[in-house]
Amino acid sequence: xxxxxxxxxxxxxxxxxxxxxxxxxxxxxxxxxxxxxxxxxxxxxxxxxxxxxxxxxxxxxxxxxxxxxxxxxxxxxxxxxxxxxxxxxxxxxxxxxxxxxxxxxxxxxxxxxxxxxxxxxxxxxxxxxxxxxxxxxxxxxxxxxxxxxxxxxxxxxxxxxxxxxxxxxxxxxxxxxxxxxxxxxxxxxxxxxxxxxxxxxxxxxxxxxxxxxxxxxxxxxxxxxxxxxxxxxxxxxxxxxxxxxxxxx
Length: 249
Prior knowledge:
Blueprint lengths: L9 H8 L2 H4 L9 E5 L15 H5 L5 E3 L4 H13 L4 E5 L27 E4 L4 E5 L3 H13 L5 E5 L2 E3 L3 H11 L2 E4 L8 H11 L11 E3 L10 H5 L5 H12 L2
Parallel strand pairs: 1-3, 2-3, 5-6, 5-8, 8-9
Antiparallel strand pairs: 2-7, 4-6
Helix pairs in contact: 5-9
């Protein structure tokens, strides 16, 4: 089933799996992978459309990953299985049928993607877009539209929610001087909120030419009607609008 129903096992995931290594003074590892669909699907309403990246990313003792491409999914899953820590593996149901080209390297049986390392999916020098899961596609599509208007976006695929690759984000912000975060989850205490705080508290803050801006899901339970659902999650047009507003163009 989906992560929407992982609340039924939240005590085992948080109080048992996440804390056992610490509480045993490192004597007992917990090599478990909790894997399943996460975030909004299509037409399944409020109880089936939540993103738990921020929920699980909040908890020490867990590692939390959120793949976008086929290479992400394969490489991160192999790394998660090999990891001695409990790993929450957040897939997106709407990405299951999306095809991706895979490099020869990624098809090797030894191919892995390190947990905790983001990937720059598109180079740019005007603004940084930081995102994860299916919204990497949205950001790349928005970047392609903006490029026709002379705005070059750097798109970062987080891949890992915890640990968070702050260094990758900082390096990009120091280059572009602007940052927009994009996620399907709710805004309050979200992944974007954490990224904003990290940038505010770190060396990249002095490089910002404008405030960091977030694009998130709407702060309501997911509606069932399609037109309301479409207006409750980020769309490509929302990313384009936010980029232009941040750049004041």
